[in-house]
What does this fold into?
Amino acid sequence: MSRRCCCDRPCIIVEDDFNRVNNTDLGPKWVEVSGDSEIVSNTLLQIPGPGLVRTVASHPVNHVSGLVYGTAKNLQNGKRYRLIINYVDSSNYVYAEIYCTSSEVATVGIYNMAGGSPTTLAEVTNVGYLAGDEAYMLLCRSNDAVFLDTVLATVIWSCLNDNGGRKAGLANGGSTALEWDDFQFTEHKITNADCPECYCDCDGNCIPKTLTLTVLASGLCACNDGAYTTISYTTPIENCTWFGTLDLDDMWSCEGSIGTWEFTFLRVNGPSGQRFYLCMLPLGIGLCGDPGPCAVGGNGGGSFDYSHTCSPLSVLFGPFSCDTQGGICTYWIQITL
It folds into this structure.
């Protein structure tokens, strides 16, 4: 009789505390891609290089998401600690960096290495630190968002394409030796419900709790062009949800008020990435191009055509229009950070 064990997949993909005898061989979990790294005094020492090591193991379900942890030891002027996710090869990966630009301040950021050229996604400069201290780093990737949490600063980038990389790593980005400790690469809640998520706004999807909604209008309703309001994060029914209201002028003639519109904006996070939905409900007279009320639920309701950009995130719904004897009203609804 055969015996079968059915177990949940563990969250941890790779874990290493480097607590072993000094050795130039890092062990079976690592590949030295460049530079010179070794185990010294229970830490990973990266000799001035720069240099990079990456995990042997890949994400178990071939997904862009994941969390990478590491402790940057002994912060000192000139050191550049890089924590890596979505590693494809030595020229293509996403990384977080603490760069000690002086003996007292550092730059903390998220960067995309593509074709060997780094692009700054988001960074905070002139962050104070104490020389000799250590800094815990967490780099988290959901579908499109990247989140960096450190003792020095928190940095968020809301929209980044998948480069296909499924490994993690550590790097020395400068010419000064540095030390790492307590590395961990884990799954995200997206692929394993028992695992953690990015601890940032929008239930870990790294979009702020307050957004700006702006009306862009032309033609008969041009008087509403530039009207804006803030929409605020609400307790989601199923997905990340923001809600707000805005008083607008008549969309047919700009004579008098049309009343108050209600706007519900949804960000749906699925296996293939994020999708956006907009629901508009006029509380006064019906609005031009009236889509009618919509249900806020898993399918988003009121799903209109939209375009979006990622630098920074901006979602544009429309155009909506109506044609009357007096002319045409055309408008768009824009959501921005």
